[in-house]
């Protein structure tokens, strides 16, 4: 007789933190195929495969709402996405901060992304549907979904009506919403009308809107107020990506920012934010330039830097800012790699010019492709933000493996350790319960995405599950040595199959998830 097991996989003797906010409780988890079929006391039950989770936590797999593996090129260079898997991530949302890899008119639509990545990859798609097919073909380590970047729409079509058609088609093909990067959007008075038209489409498809604030520094509060007005007018669900106040001048406004968001939410405005749990930002050196000089394409910005009069004006404007060059670490540079690991102050001293002049020179010699870490976030503010009902965790990073370090440059440690760092260290410091901490990484992002049947360890839900040690689950990367996987993850189950077993990545079980329309 062929005996058919009730479960294909049984996780026994674990402590379940189910994602709902409920505190940990002992339970077994039974899985058949790709679904959780039972949670409770399953003593005496058998399965094709059994995992003994004694003294381990069993949680839903983590959902990363702000992920850049697409524009950094690492989904092609490292399809396993090992650094994401090893920190318990089972699903990542791409297409953040105004930039996505689809829809595009052709390879030239992605030329501007050279400022983000030095990883070459072949582009053989135009639409979101074709892009999804390509990701499925390469075989990916974790589940992936994408937003449509507003900057991508701008490059793909010259006329607003064409952009709307592209967005409509992308949503019909399974995109999950749209992202904007207001720090890149030109202030021409027309941008709000354009965005409101886009948001009508997002609202019709019940999609999500993700926003990179226009200003996280000097104009922090006005940027939040303007955004809330936009969300209120459009009626969409919105998430501020990598929410933070940058620089001491903005730190003192942080409590007011949280109050404004709380007030808007109590008025029915659907606004949330995600946070990465580190005190250094990871961004482009380009982002330090004054607003007016960042408008346009990469080649237009480069022309400005090469023009003596405009470069002098940029340097003059930079001198009016509070830069703290000793706190800005050069993480990667496309051509001039000798400055990697040096502060901006050290680079300027070596070049025997001012830090402001060094910014212009380094950007010019690297065709804008320079990434930096800035020590500009207040620890007190970060803990305060994490406690908020509106807060979720995200990496704001990308998936790497150890071998990727051969490309040169430093990866931000959040790409290797954001989830365990929050769970193991910062949630305690912020006074967040274990139940709530897991919810901020699982059920809350799933709910916002309208990602049905995911984000909970519950009967009938997708079997995306992380199994890890309560004390050993921690991040190990540093800013100068980030290529170190998190420790303590014992098993990671994606779609009912083990992607990580006994702390080692063994297989790729990710798939593209298209939003149902």
Assembly type of the shown chains?
single chain
Apparent shape: globular
Number of strands: 21
Radius of gyration, in angstroms, nearest whole number: 23 Å
Q: Count of DSSP helices? A: 18
Largest sheet: 9 strands, mixed
Beta-strand fraction estimate: 15-25%
Helical/strand content category: alpha/beta
Question: Would you identify the regions where 5 or more consecutive residues have pLDDT less than 50?
Answer: none
N-end to C-end Cα span = 44 Å
Average pLDDT score: 91
Percent of residues in helices: 25-40%
Brief overview:
This protein is of the alpha/beta class.
Explain what the structure shows.
The chain has helices at 74-77, 82-85, 128-138, 150-156, 160-172, 191-204, 220-234, 248-251, 254-266, 291-294, 298-306, 308-319, 344-351, 355-365, 379-387, 414-429, 434-441, 443-449, and strands spanning 7-16, 25-32, 35-40, 47-52, 57-60, 62-64, 89-94, 143-146, 148-149, 177-181, 208-212, 237-240, 271-275, 280-284, 328-333, 370-375, 391-393, 465-468, 489-494, 497-501, 504-505. With 517 residues, the protein is α/β, with parallel strands linked by helices. The strands form four sheets. Strands 1, 2, 3, 4, 5, 18, 19, 20 and 21 form a nine-stranded mixed beta sheet that branches. The longest helix is centred in the last third of the chain and has 16 residues, at 414-429. The mean pLDDT is 91.
């Amino acid at each position: 007789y062929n005996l058919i097991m009730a479960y294909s996989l049984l996780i026994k003797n674990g402590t379940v933190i189910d994602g709902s906010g409920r505190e940990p409780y002992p339970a077994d988890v039974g899985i058949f195929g790709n679904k959780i079929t039972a949670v409770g006391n399953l003593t005496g039950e058998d399965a094709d495969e059994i995992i003994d989770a004694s003294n381990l936590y069993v949680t839903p797999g983590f959902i990363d709402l702000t992920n850049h593996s697409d524009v950094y090129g690492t989904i092609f260079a490292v399809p396993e996405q090992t650094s994401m898997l090893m920190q318990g991530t089972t699903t990542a949302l791409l297409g953040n901060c105004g930039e996505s890899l689809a829809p595009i008119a052709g390879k030239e639509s992605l030329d501007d992304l050279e400022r983000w990545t030095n990883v070459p990859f072949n582009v053989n798609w135009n639409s979101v549907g074709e892009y999804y097919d390509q990701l499925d073909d390469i075989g990916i380590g974790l589940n992936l979904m994408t937003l449509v970047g507003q900057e991508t729409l701008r490059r793909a079509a010259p006329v607003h009506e064409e952009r709307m058609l592209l967005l409509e088609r992308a949503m019909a093909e399974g995109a999950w919403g749209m992202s904007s990067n207001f720090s890149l959007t030109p202030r021409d008075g027309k941008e709000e009308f354009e965005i409101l038209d886009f948001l009508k489409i997002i609202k019709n498809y019940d999609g999500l809107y993700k926003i990179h604030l226009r200003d996280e520094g000097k104009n922090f509060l006005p940027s939040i107020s303007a955004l809330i007005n936009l969300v209120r007018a459009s009626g969409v669900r919105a998430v501020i990506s990598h929410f933070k106040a940058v620089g001491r001048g903005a730190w003192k406004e942080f409590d007011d920012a949280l109050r404004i968001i709380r007030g808007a939410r109590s008025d029915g405005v659907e606004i949330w934010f995600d946070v990465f749990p580190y005190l250094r930002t990871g961004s482009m050196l380009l982002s330090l330039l004054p607003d007016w000089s960042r408008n346009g394409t990469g080649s237009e910005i480069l022309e400005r830097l090469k023009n003596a009069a405009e470069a002098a004006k940029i340097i003059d404007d930079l001198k009016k800012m509070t830069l703290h060059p000793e706190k800005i670490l050069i993480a990667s540079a496309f051509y001039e790699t000798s400055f990697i690991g040096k502060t901006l102050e050290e680079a300027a001293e070596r070049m025997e010019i001012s830090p402001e002049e060094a910014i212009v020179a380094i950007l010019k010699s690297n065709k804008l492709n320079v990434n930096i870490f800035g020590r500009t976030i207040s620890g007190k503010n970060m803990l305060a933000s994490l406690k908020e009902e509106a807060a979720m965790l995200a990496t704001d990073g990308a998936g790497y493996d150890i071998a990727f370090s051969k490309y040169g440059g430093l990866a931000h440690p959040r790409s290797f350790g954001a989830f365990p760092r929050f769970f193991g260290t910062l949630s305690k410091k912020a006074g967040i319960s274990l139940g709530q901490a897991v919810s901020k990484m699982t059920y809350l992002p799933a709910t916002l995405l309208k990602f049905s049947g995911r984000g909970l360890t519950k009967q009938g839900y997708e079997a995306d599950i992380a199994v890890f040690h309560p004390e050993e689950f921690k991040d190990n990367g540093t800013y100068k040595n980030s290529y170190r996987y998190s420790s303590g993850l014992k098993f990671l189950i994606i779609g009912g199959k083990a992607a990580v077993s006994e702390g080692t990545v063994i297989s790729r079980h990710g798939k593209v998830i298209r939003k149902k329309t």
